[in-house]
Prior knowledge:
This protein is an alpha/beta fold. The chain has a single domain, classed as Rossmann fold (3-Layer(aba) Sandwich), CATH 3.40.50. It contains ten helices and 13 strands.
Amino acid sequence: MKVVIAGGTGFLGSALAASLRLDGHHVLVMTRHPNAHDEVPWTDASVFDGADAVVNLAGEPLDAGRWNAARKASILESRVKNTEALVKGMSSVARRPAVFLNGSAVGFYGAHANEALTEESPPGSDYLASVCIEWEKAAMAAAWMTRVVLLRTGLPLDKNGGALPKLALPFRLFAGGRAGSGDQYWSWIHRDDWARMVRWAIDNPEIKGPVNLTAPSPVTNREFAAALGRALHRPALAAAPGFALRLAFGEMADALILSGQRVLPTKAERNGFEFRYPDLQSALRQIYQ
């Protein structure tokens, strides 16, 4: 199987690429600065010809700096423009890809309390929701020529990258605990299950449209802190007040830390996907074993 990954050197893309290569699949990574035999420039649309799947995970990191008008515009533009370029490239080749999987996030649903959210739930109206809406709209422009899957990803967990090392640091210093009230839901997924679900979506032609890439047991931030403390053998007593987080991170604190969504992987479970790490305890046990 030939798979092209845009954003294949990032935290999630590298895990997906490694998983595919381990099983003998041909993986090509699109990058603006190719320096390896399996990397190709963004301008080379010929790479799409005959591809079994194209996966787009490219976009500016949300937590790379404090949000202001320019940063927010850059976050949106990096996702939409990259996606538009990929769709244009795929349309130009003779043998178009069988499936196009495009990144998105559970932020699509906006901030919620404890309401269970599925792929059928409506979008939110905040900044992150608007980014996801425009990102998905750009991807769905490819629906006339290929199957499109929208990867609405929760908080991916792994010891060596993503948010977890940053979340774990205060606990290692005996200063970990809940963020704000701790009542906000965090919808998470083990990075291995994330890669497995993307591959499952590639392999199952009936899967299309939005898919929630989250574990079936979202937890409150308070529960997440307690579980992380247990996994690291540290207390989870030092709460971070909301006002302090807002002073430190500005608008990003509310969007990424202090609000949340209880998102369920309804489409995946209905269609037979089986999680290796369905609960947070088993996920953290494997990560920190």
